[in-house]
Amino acid sequence: MQFFRKLSTLWRKNELDADMAEELRLHLEQRTRENIAAGMNPDEAQYAAQRQFGNLAAIQEQAREVRGWVWLEQSGKNLYFAARSLAKSPAFTVTALATLALCLGANLAIFAVVDAVLLRPLPFPEARELVTMFNTYPKAGVLNDGSSLTNYYERRGNVAAFSSLSIYREGTVIVGATGATDRQTAMQVSPEFFSTLGVKLARGRAFTEEETTYQAGGVVIVSDGYWRQRLHADPEVLGQEVRVDGLPQKVVGVLPSGFRFLSSEAQLYFPLRSGPQQRAASERHSGGGAIKMIARLGPGISIAEAQSQIDAHNAAMSVGDPEAKAMAEAGFRTPVLSLQAAQVASVRPLLLLVQSGAFFLLLIGLVNLVNLLLVRASTRAKECAVRQALGASRRHVVGEVLAETTLLAVVGGLGGLALGAGGTGFVAAVCGDQLPLGVHLSFDWRLALVAFGGAVALGAITAVPIAWFNLRAHLANALQSESRGSTAGRAAQRLRHGFVVGQIALAFVLLAGAGLLGTSLRQVMAISPGFSSGQILSGQISLPYKTYGSDRARLAFTERLIGEVGHEPGVVAAGVSTNVPFSGNGGKSSVTVVGYIRPPDESLRANYTFGVDGDYFAALGLPLVEGRFLSAADSRRTERVCVIDEAFARYYWKQGGAIGHRLYQGSQAGNESEAFTIVGVVGVAKQEDLADREALGTVYLPFGYRSDESIYVVVRSNVPSQSLGHVLQSTVRKIDPELPVNDLRSMETRIADSLVARRSPALLAVIFGGFALLLTVIGTYGVLSHAVAQRRHEIGVRMALGAQPGQIGRQFLRLGLRLLAAGMLLGLLGAWLAGNAMQSLLFGVPALHWPTLVSVCVVLIVISLGACLIPARRATKVDPMVALRSE
Amino acid sequence: MLILRVLNRGEMHGWGIADRIEYLSKKVFTVGEGSLYPALYRLQGQGWIESEWGISDNNRKAKFYRLTKAGKKQLEIETETWDRLALAIGDIIRST
């Protein structure tokens, strides 16, 4: 009741004011009448009554305060006046708002990404229980070999820590009737895959155990999107057939809408089929990296517990395993990681780096804002001092300052929100598909709330130094002309200078970071990939099992393909390989070299093994070091030959003479007739990333002896590679109308794409650095020009006393340079720290990279000098007569 | 508290209250009369008195104040507190 009454006084303000005025007037009238009755004359009577009453205005003020809500009225007035005074100085207002909006917007956009990727949990129930594990053999050079089928069948149900275990393999399939086929991403999964994730199918059922054998009929589970688009959302879809890779598959289930497994684009899910030999103990370490394992922890089980259980399980399985010793020497382990952490691990340092950069920018912008506000406050110091002398309370002064800064912060914040929303959209459009977890960037209300709250808090925080300044304005001195000697002036000046130094330091760090990233990028780009990468077109073809089930069938296809493509105009050389550099796939295997005895403390070593056909080496441009290339005929020869690269040769035969030696595929020697003889040594090609340091070695076998369902066509031309794309596609379709060519990219594009993870942060850092520079220039210029304006009187006196204009100008220049020097020193320290923190993202660049640091210094000096010169020049132009007379 | 006491005897207007206090305290309290009004408004805001416009004895318009039930109770509480306080202080002063 109390509260409502109080609330009602809010809108009855005028009525209550009139009421009170009336009441007090009547009181005074009564007293006046009494005084007249007592014998005074009317004027005296009134005067006496008023004296007895007290200060009418003060009483009314007090009464109003008692009523409450005064602070609301006051704030309203403050805001109104703040708006007016801001509108009167448009240059300042626009600069401040733009700075705020830009810095806030950038931070918001990047935070949206950070939030979506790092902070939000996976979209599965109890997602923190989801883990992944993989086999790693670090000493052999294989860091992530996925899991094997054997692993799955042995661990399923036998490791108590996991309530559910599942494996999956990604791939592509060709869907549709002859002539109208297209490629779809698909996944092969074990039966409990969806239940492990906690996902219930919208229709139908999951796969059964018997559907994981080769004998069972073809079944498929489709995504909601596929069901709607390709199957016309038919409610009777269960039991319908879809033609995949030439074979009919029965639809047994439909997934719920919105389901997406991490960043996979798969629309079709098949059972992961295998035969008993593939599940045997001997295949335990033959995962090859394609099959991946996920699991759900049992309730209350920690990852550490699961890890120890898996370790124990592995130890138990290795008893009696002939490969166990070699694997142990290779450092075999199965680390268990949270699924989310594993997915974002590669992007995490990058994202954090970019977020820090944006944050730095925000800091610089804020410092700039405070500086500008301080300058503004000092120009109005006299007015403020007068008002305080006339009785403005502390609360009043603070309230005014708060109103102005909050207004600026809120409006700037709204601008920042708009920019942030736009920026998020921009980021989503440009690199949305490169983000892990397939996250959808959206600018949600949660973010907006955080941003708005932040803006308001900002307003409050920036009010503090300004309010401090205004309150401390020493009244007496401020009322006279602005003198350098006043304590408030000194303290404020030191504050402003401190801020400029801080700005310069922060800008230095940002620019140095950009320089380091840029240098790192340049260094990586300068690395030769090992082959001549111009004018090469490459594409991937998946050969379905139905028509290309045997090595011979595949060989026939590749030979025909190479023959046809080789005859096209503009083609210099054409070849086929099971993998090309920078393809994004990187399976490694091991070979056994005849006659090579491994030293006891050395582990098994993995290397790349490819099957090649046609003029692959010539097409790729790999240099020949010794012996000869493989040719098309080698695939058909009974005599088995192979070619190795220099890294492989150097590792096994340090003194040379690799040619003539023999090796076996796999980690053990086999039948004599299965050995391959080395006939040539070629140069080393970078397989996965230009920055690859370790060259594991590559073995090239004839395609006839090592074929795969996935092949890459490589074509070197003397015309631009893009123009050959159509030709390649149509040639392939001529041979087999059901085969599309996928991932058609020139080799240069592949290499450039592999650099994206280095290029984006470098680009962003440069943008941030540029902004930081701009803000620093504004800040330095503002502070120096204010210093000049403040000391006009003093300059006038000195000039009148005989100082040369040049001396005056130089003095201000020196001030600017002093600030610059202090800032750069701090910045150097900061850059060193940042360089250390960024090491994982840099390539070949130490934390203290002198060329970068020196160039940043030069840039800062040049720009700051420019910013200092103008005010300094203005100082020299001061007319002593005018300065002395004015205040 | 004094205002509440005065109003206990019945409703009164602003200057009447001022007169009464001056009279009852035998001229000990002569504060500026205007300071009465903020106090009146505060008491009103706390719900211990209520007001309404009326006509005074000499046919003038005036705002009359009177105690509410809650106000009466408040007066009792404050009077009791004051008595206890006065007793305690009295004891201390006279004890030595």
Please describe the structure with a list of short key phrases separated by commas or semicolons.
heterodimer; A: 887 residues; alpha+beta; 4 domains; eleven-stranded mixed sheet; ten-stranded mixed sheet; 28 helices; 52% helix; 14% strand; B: alpha+beta; three-stranded antiparallel sheet; elongated
Describe the structure.
The complex is a heterodimer of chains A (887) and B (96). Chain A is α+β, with helices and mostly antiparallel strands and 887 residues long. Chain A has 4 domains: 2-68, no CATH class; 135-334, no CATH class; 348-526 and 756-885, no CATH class; 544-738, no CATH class. In chain A, 52% of the residues lie in helices and 14% in strands. Chain A contains 28 helices and 21 strands. In chain A, strands 11, 12, 13, 14, 15, 16, 17, 18, 19, 20 and 21 form an 11-stranded mixed sheet that branches. In chain A, strands 1, 2, 3, 4, 5, 6, 7, 8, 9 and 10 form a 10-stranded mixed sheet that branches. In chain A, a hairpin with a 6-residue loop joins β2 and β3 (182-189). In chain A, α6 (90-119) runs antiparallel to α13 (348-379). Chain A is elongated, with a radius of gyration of 38 Å. Chain B is α+β, with helices and mostly antiparallel strands and 96 residues long. Chain B has a single domain, classed as Winged helix-like DNA-binding domain superfamily/Winged helix DNA-binding domain (Arc Repressor Mutant, subunit A, Orthogonal Bundle). A 3-stranded antiparallel sheet of chain B has the order 1-3-2. The chains are: A alpha+beta (887), B alpha+beta (96). At the A-B interface, α1, α2 and α4 of A face α3 and β3 of B.
